[in-house]
Amino acid sequence: MNTDPASYICAAIRSVPDWPKPGVTFRDITPVLQNPRSFRVLIDLFVYRYIGQRLDLVAGVDARGFILGSVLAYELNLGFVPVRKKGKLPFRTVAEEYTLEYGNAAVEMHTDAVRPGQRVLLIDDLIATGGTMLAAAKLLQRLGANVVEAAAIIELPELGGAQAVKATGLPLYTVCRFNEGEPKGERVPEPGAA
Q: Any idea where the Phosphoribosyltransferase domain is (predicted)?
């Protein structure tokens, strides 16, 4: 590999203009997942970050957070907890609503998904406005979990979600940052890095 792992992942993400509506550029992670090398590099980036941390569970946000979260949980020898869209879980649940551009949505978890005091990593594929990530974090906290960090592959800084998450005091780690109108993403530098 001629470049650092994060830059390699950023370059593998496909930008699809005008989808799902005109003026929106969709950041598609499926090329990263389809290629065994880039998928391994992506998972390894997260494994190397979290391998030495004291964690009990990985919580993944519906649906692409399930892909990342379950593989990461396996690699770290941790349990996995799904944070689902409302109405998808069969047992007793607790829900957290959040605001969308034109309405509300909700995520939910089983009431026994976490135990008080468990240390949880929350992961999704992308952070845009931050609504889903913040709702999932609140849900975990309501059940007594200690959300250690939120993580995502992609950050869309113009939509303010990363700032909203950080404003709550929850640390956030992302691999790539995409600015609207730019076809390729840039590596997100570690805090304190030059």
A: 36-157
Are the beta carbons of 140 and 59 closer than 8 angstroms?
Answer: yes
pLDDT of amino acid 194: 42
Q: How many angstroms separate the CA atoms of 42 and 46, rounded? A: 7
The answer to whether residue 13 is domain-embedded is no
Classify residue 23: in a domain, yes or no.
Answer: no
How far apart are the C-alpha atoms of 48 and 52, rounded to whole Å? 8
The boundaries of the domain holding residue 117 are 54-187
Q: At what angle do helices 64-76 and 36-50 cross, to 10 degrees?
A: 60
| Residue 120, domain CATH | 3.40.50.2020
Tokens of 172: 């956030």
Predicted TM-score of the model (pTM): 0.93
**Radius of gyration of the chain, Cα coordinates, nearest whole angstrom:** 16
Average pLDDT of the segment spanning 15-39: 94
Cβ 95 vs Cβ 138: under 8 Å: no
Segment 155-181, tens digit of pLDDT: 999 999 999 999 999 999 999 999 876
Is 46 part of any domain?
no
Query: Could you tell me the CA-to-CA distances from 188 to 37, 129, 145, 175 in Å, in that order?
Result: 20, 18, 27, 6
pLDDT in tens, 81-107: 999 999 999 999 999 999 876 779 999
